[in-house]
Amino acid sequence: MKPRLLFATGNAGKLRELRGLVGDAVEVVSLEELPPIPEPEESGATFAENAELKARAYAAASGLPALADDSGLCVDALGGRPGVHSARYAEGDDKARYQKLLAELSGVPDDKRTAAFACALCLVRPGGGPAIIEVGRCEGRIGHEPRGSHGFGYDPVFVLPGGKTMAELTSEEKAAISHRGVAFQKMLPHLRAMAGGPPVGG
């Protein structure tokens, strides 16, 4: 019987991405497939702290190893904001959030609009024990207007070094270079080891 792993997300895209990465080694289950679990408060000061808070809470409540992520956008001209508050940066939807960002950066020249997407993934086994944390970053800058129809969140205004926004990439292209994709690749050997298989690349 394959080991089960709870991926603590309600985001179908993230779930699909992880299932594609781990293949048949682990049965990845989502929060939607379990009885309701109260959502823990994300009170950490960093992405890693919030990811660990969520992973520990969901592992304890479900009795399964739990993987949780926390991610966001860090803009240099704003002192690292919105950071851990990226999802709560503005009332409303994704468009409201990136429009607020563009308004805050109005008049800021291109060379001062540097930014990075950051992601922390945390894996915790039920019963406590040490947490495994892996992080990923994707560097870029904030554009002056939204472009592209793929992705979500701040993707339409996040310009990559090649000139495309994150929202102009296919899901496969995004997974290969995104902050979450990088963190997933780093976490993959730990997930494979949990399944009793050899670590990837080792």
UniProtKB/TrEMBL annotation:
Its EC number is 3.6.1.66. Keywords: Hydrolase, Magnesium, Metal-binding, Nucleotide metabolism, Nucleotide-binding. One of its GO terms (biological process) is nucleotide metabolic process. Coiled coil: none annotated. Mg(2+) binds at E41, D70. It catalyses: dITP + H2O = dIMP + diphosphate + H(+); ITP + H2O = IMP + diphosphate + H(+); XTP + H2O = XMP + diphosphate + H(+). It comes from the Bacteria. Homodimer. Belongs to the HAM1 NTPase family. NCBIfam families: RdgB/HAM1 family non-canonical purine NTP pyrophosphatase. This is dITP/XTP pyrophosphatase. It comes from Archangium violaceum Cb vi76.
